[in-house]
Design brief:
The complex is a heterotrimer of chains A (357), B (369) and C (285). Helices cover 43% and strands 17% of the residues of chain A. Chain A is an alpha/beta fold. In chain A, the strands form 4 sheets. In chain A, strands 7, 8, 9, 10, 11, 12, 14 and 15 form an 8-stranded mixed beta sheet that branches. In chain C, helix 7 crosses helix 9. The chains are: A alpha/beta (357), B alpha+beta (369), C mainly alpha (285). At the A-C interface, helix 3, helix 4, strand 9 and helix 14 of A face helix 3, helix 10 and helix 11 of C.
Amino acid sequence: MKTSTTRFTLSALSLAIMGLAQSGSADTLRLLTWGGYAPENVIDMFEAETGHTVEVTKSNNEEMIAKLRATGGGGFDLAQPSQDRIAGPQMEFGIYKPIDVSKLDQSLFIPSMLSATMANTTVDGAVYGVPHVWGTSGLVLNTAMAGSVKDYTDLCNDDVAGKVSYRLKRPTLIGFAFAMGMDPFAAYGDEAAYTEMMGKVEEKLISCKANVKAYWGGGDELMGLMRSGEAVASMAWDTGGWKLNADNPDITFVAPASGALGWIDTFVLPAKGKADDAAYAWINFVMQPKIAAMITEAAGNFTASKGADEFASADLKARYQASFPPEAVDNIKWYPPVPAGLEAIEGGVLDRVKAAN
Amino acid sequence: MTPDLAPDLNCARLTKRFGDTLAVDDVSFDVPPGSFFSILGPSGCGKTTIMRMIAGFLDPSSGDIRIKGRSMAGVPPNKRPVNMVFQHLALFPMMNIADNIGYGLRRQGLGKAEIARKVDAALERIGLPGIGARKVDELSGGQKQRVAIARCMVLEPDVLLLDEPLGALDLKLREHMKVELKALQAAFDTTFVYITHDQSEALVMSDQIAVMNNGVFEQVGSARDLYYRPDTAFVAGFVGDANRWQGRITAVNGEAMQIETDSGLTLRGARHGRSLNVGDRAEVFVRPEAIRIAGTPEDLQHFDNRITGTVTSLLFNGAASRILVRDTAGEEIEVTLPQSGEYAALSRGDAVHIGWSGDQGNCFPAGAA
Amino acid sequence: MRAEAKLGFILLLTPLLLWLTLLIFIPHVDMFLVSLRERVGVGKHDTSLANYRTFLTEPLYLWTFLRTAVMSVVATAITLIIAFPVSYYIAKIAKGRLQSALFLLCLIPFYVSELVRTFGWMILLRETGLVSNLLLWAGLADQPVEMLYNDAAIMVGLVYTSMLFMVVPLVTTLESLDDSVIEAGYDLGGTGFSVLREIVIPHAAPGIVSGCIVVFMLSLGNYLTPTMLGGKDSLWFTELIYSQFIVRFNWELGAAFGFMLLFLSSLIVWGMLKITGQTLEKTMG
C-alpha cells in the first residue's frame, strides 16, 4: 500500500472537474486505486482486449473514502479500499453500491479469501466488496543494528533510541495494543473498553516518542529513512521491507511476535459509478493468474487470484518465505471491519500523541 | 587669508570621471559670501555632477571642495554645511509640512519646543504661516517650492544648492518664482548655488553665472558680461538669441574685420581682442535686437552692414515681437521689431531694409564650439 | 451608449461574481452548515455548536492553534527582516540587468512545486544530508547532526517559501520611492538609521503590511512545509484540519476548525493593523 499527500481541497476540486468532464462516456473506467495496482502493461492489455479505456487515480484508504464522500460516491467507477473500511463508511455515508458477484468469475479467487471478504463487507444483506491484493504490516528492521526488536513495543527499547520510525495512524495503535497483550479487535464493539485500551496505548506511545526519529507519512519517506540508516527499526508494510531487502540484505520485513496485521484491499463499486460493466470486466481480467502475477510484480504484494503464485518471481517468494515462517502466517491478525465512529476515539489518541513532548 | 574674505564655496581643480567619460574637467571657481551663483549649461554638461559633488553624493576624482575654508574631502552629505533643493523638491510625502521643515532640526537633536518655534518662523518667512499641519500633496507647486527652501534654510546652511528647482513648474509660476527666489535669497542672506539649463532663470537671478559645456566652464561672469561680451562662440550661441553666420575672413583692420560668409554675404564684424587673421574661418553672431529696420536704404547709411530682404514670418510676442527676413542669399535673419510700434503694419512678403553696426557682429574662430 | 456601457459593466462583473459566489461564497456557506452538525448516531446529525465547543474546550486544539499562530507571526517577522534588505538592494541599489537578474533569482524557487522545494530542504538538513556531511568534513562536528524535524527547520522552510511574497510588494513600494527623497534625508543631516526609520520605512509601510498579511496567511495555511520539515513534533493547525477531514472522516469538526482558523486569523490580522496604525485601504491603494 502506498500513500500520497494531496491537499483535500485540491483533490475535491479536480474531482468535481473530472466528474463534469466525464459524465456520459460509459467506456471509460475511472479507477481509484493504490500505486502499483494498475501497472501500465496490464492497462494496455485490458484496453486492447476489451476496448474500454482506463483512467487511474492513485490514492490511499482515507483519501479514497474522503473523495467518494465528497461526491456522494461519484467520480469513479471502481475503487479499492481495504476490506475493513467498507462496512463502516457504507453505513455512515452510503458511498458504495452492492456488487453483483454473479457477474464475476468466482473460480479465479482463492475461495477462503473471497468468502471472508464478502462476509466482512456485507451490509444489510448486500455484498459490497471482493478481495484483490493482500499483505501484512509489521516491522521493517535493519537486522544488523536493531537485533533486539522482536515486537512493536520493542521499538521503545533504548538501543534503538532516536532511530525508530512509524506512522501516526491506526495500524500503529492496533499493533501496539496487540504487542501490549491486548486484543483491540475483540474490543471493536465495546466503545468503553476500546477507549480504555487506546488510553493505555496512548501512554505507551507518548513515553516512546523520544525514541522516534520521525513519524513517516509516505512510503518514499520511510524508504529514505531506512536506506540512509537514519532509522534502523520501523513499522511498515511487508513490501516496503522486501524492496529495501533487494538493496541492502540487512534490511527486511519481520513479522512481529504478537503477529503481523493482515489487510486485504478490495474492489468496490462507488455508489454513482457509471461504467459497471467495464468495472466487472476489469475485475475478471486482473484476477487471471498471469495478470495477477504481473500486478504482484508491480505492487510487491500477493493477490487473491488462485494459482497466481506459480507465476510470481522466485525472489519475491523467497523473501515472503523468509519473513513468514508457517507459524507466522497462522498468527496474522486480519483486520475486522471498523465500526463507524471508532476513528473518533483513535483520532483523539493520535492528536494527543502528536502534541505530547 | 582672513575668514571675512574667504569665499563661502571654493572649488579647486575639480575633476570627475565616470569610467572613460570625463564629466567634470578641471573646474575651479569661487563663490563669495551672500551671492547668487548659477551654473548654466545644456543637459549632460556636468553641472549636476558638480552640484552632487558639493552636496557630497559624489566624490571628486581629483581636486578639492572647500566650504568656508574647510575641506569637504571625506565629509559625508549629512555632515556638510550645505543643503540642497532637489529638482523635484523631494519633500517627504509621509510627513506633514511642519515635520518636513523640522526634519533637519530633529536630526540636530533640538528640543520639541524650539523646533516648533523655528518651523513657525520659517513658515512665516516664506509667507505661508499656519500650514504646518497640511500634507505635502495639499500644496500648490509654488508653495511646495517655498517649503523645500524653508526646509533647508531652517538649518542655516553656509551654502544652499538648488538643482533646477523651477523645472517642474508651469511658465507663469516659473516667471513669478524667479523673482521670489531672488527675494528669498536676499531675505535669508545665504549663498545660493543654482544650476539650470534655462538661461533666463540664470540671467534674471544671478550675481555670477558660470556657463558650462562638456565638463568645463566656458565663461564666468555677470549676466551683462555673458550677454554682451561672450568669451566663446558657445556662450554667444547659448546665452540669448543670435543670428549666426560661418565664413572666411577677408580683411582685418584693428578690431574691425570683414568676413565673406559661406552663403556669399559680405559682413563686417569685430573680433574684440580675439586672435583672427585674414584667411581664418570664423563665426559671426549678431543679436536680433542689434539689427535695425528701415523703409529705405538711406535710413541705414550709418551702418556698415546693410541687407535688403523680404519678410517671411511675423513672430508677435508683445514687446519682444520679431520678424524673419529672408536675405538675398536665401538665409533667414531674425530681427527684433522696435517697441515704438512703427513697423506693426508689416506683413509677409513686404520688402524691408535691415542693417547693424560692425561692432555688434561678434566674431569667433570657427570650430571653437 | 449608456446601455452599452451598462452591458460592458455587467460582462466585466460577471466573472468576478461567478468566482465569488461559486468558488468562495457557496462552499463557505456549505462548510459552515457542515460545521454546525453534530453526529448523534450512524448517519444521523443534529444542528448544534458542539464542534465549536470541542475546539474551545479541548486545550490540545487551542494550543495547536496558538502555536501555529505564534510560529507564523515569527516566520513573518523573520521573512520581513531578511526580505527588506534584499528588496532594498533590488529596488534601489542594483541597476539594469543585475536588478532583473536578482529579481528572477527570487522567483526561481517558485518554478518548482512546494513539495520539491521542501524535499530540497530535507536533503540539505537531514542527518545524512549535505549540511551535516559538510560539518563533519570541516571538523565542526564529530558525529552526524540532525537539523531536520524541529521548529527551526519549520521556520527555515516557511521563511524560504514566503520570501517571494514579501519581496514583491516591498520591491514595488521601494521602487516608487524617489531616490532624491532618500538623498534629501541624508542632505538634511539624517543618518542611515534615521533615514530608514523616518523615510524609507514609512514610505514602504503599505508594502510591508501587505507582504506581512500574505506571508502570515500563507504560513498559517501551509500544510506541506510544517508537516514534512517538522517531523514528529510539527503540530500545525492545518494538519489537524486535514486529519479531521481525511483520516477521521470527521468533516463536521474539520469544518468547525476551518472556520475558527478563518475567524481567528482575520482577528489577528485586524489586530496587527490596529497596532501598527495601518488600514487595509491604505495597503491596497
